[in-house]
Amino acid sequence: MTAWKNSAMKRGIAWITGSAVLAAASIGGWVVYSRRSNSAQTVNVRVLTVERTDVERTVNASGTVKLGSQQTLKAPSDATIVELSVEMGDRVSSGEELAILRDDEELTQLEEHLLRIRQQELEVEAKQQNVENASRSLAAARQERDRVFSRARTSDRASLVERQNEIEETTLTLENQRQAAIDARETLATERETLERDRDLFDRGFIALNQLKDAENTVRRVEAELRQAELQVRTTQLRLESLRASLETIRRQIEDDAIASEEERSEANATVRSAEIALQEAQYEANTATLDLQQLQLEAQTIEDRLQNRIVSAPIGGKVLNIDVVRGDVVQIGESLLTLGDPDREIVELNLSTLDAKAVRSGQPARISVIGPDEATFEGEVERISLSADSETVDSGSRESLAAVGAIVRLTEPSGTLIPGSQVNVEIVLDRQPDTISLDIEAIQQPDADPFVWLLDENNTVSPQNVTLGLDGLTVVEILSGLEPGDRVAVPPIDRELEPGITVEQQ
């Protein structure tokens, strides 16, 4: 019995000892895990420093470089290139001759027209001479008719003229006398009104009796003048009627004394009518010949204008960018000859999406940069934007088309290096906040809800900081409140979310 008890006690002691060892091992493992877990809370992040920068909202598009007023001159008609006066790269002035074209068929037509014009001019001169002869014959016939119709005694005619002159003089005298009577009536009316006012003033004791008497005397004097004027009018009227009756008597006497017979007068009238018909016929022939001449001259001028168009002149001052023909080439109407542009004015033509075009306005600044390894940027501004959209093919394989709005950006200063026809990138500045507090967009958390950033303290511990956003650019955003220059902000890694109080390390 005693031996069994000793054996059981030994087994109990061994079990207790094993349990203690197991417990100690568990406690040690927990301590190691706890230390490793605390070490795992340190996260590597990218740290950004809040600064003041320029924030811009921009639109980017590619465009084609062109010179100002760039245009391709076309052949005005089928012709042969006789001479080229310029070479590629030459500077030309407006109106300067660039090329000469020749059309032999039209030259022959012009010579034929000039010959016909000379012949027609001689014809017109002959017809005009006929008109002058007919005019002289008509004048002579009319003079003879007047002589036949004007036969009368010289004394009667002298009396007729004298009486007519007397009537004219008497008529003028009568008009003057009538006007004098009208003036006298107006003066009398005025003086009577004055007299009435003076009588009223006299009755009220404002003027003396002698002043009233003067007004009455004036009225009586004007009445006498009016009666005298009316008498003169009546006397002159009677004299005028007498003169007119005498004139009518003289006229009847002249008619009765006419010695020309009715036959002579009829013959004179017939001669005049014949001369008038001859003049009309001559004028008609002259006018017809003149119209034919003008038609020939118009046709010749048309040919000359077409020949003149064979001289291709520069419509603008500029630079020759390309020449598509050489001397001796035969060109057809509308075929390209050469291309001109003004190097003092460089523009970029580009197409904007309808969404971007809504925000673009004339006068907005722009930056033009070369596409390729040789980076160069030039300043410019939006000069014009179309008010309508056109379809633009965006995928040559599927032939998919989208609506695009055309725009033109003008370089502030000509670059002198951009090649017309080359592609460039255009960045249009829609809005700009200079020297403002800003931060990279990727550092903003929940930008569409309640935006905040992970702000770092001096111990590299993160805490959420609410911010108010302003203008957003392509990669940075304006911070209106919540941060100051010099503040440090942590950008969380993609695979780990930050929590307040976590200590981070800068990558």
Q: How many individual β-strands?
A: 19
Shape: flat
Helices and strands, in order, run as HEEEEEHHHHEEEEHEEEEEEEEEE
How many individual helices? 6
Provide the CATH architecture of the domain at 41-69 and 343-507. Beta Barrel
CATH uppermost class of the domain at 41-69 and 343-507 = Mainly Beta
Polypeptide structure, described:
It contains six helices and 19 strands. The chain has 507 residues and is α+β, with helices and mostly antiparallel strands. Among the domains are: 41-69 and 343-507, Efflux pump adaptor protein, beta barrel domain (Elongation Factor Tu (Ef-tu), domain 3), CATH 2.40.30; 152-258. A six-stranded antiparallel beta barrel has the order 2-9-12-11-10-13. The longest helix is centred in the middle third of the chain and has 50 residues, at 154-203. 15% of the residues are buried. Mean pLDDT is 82; it is low at 1-40.
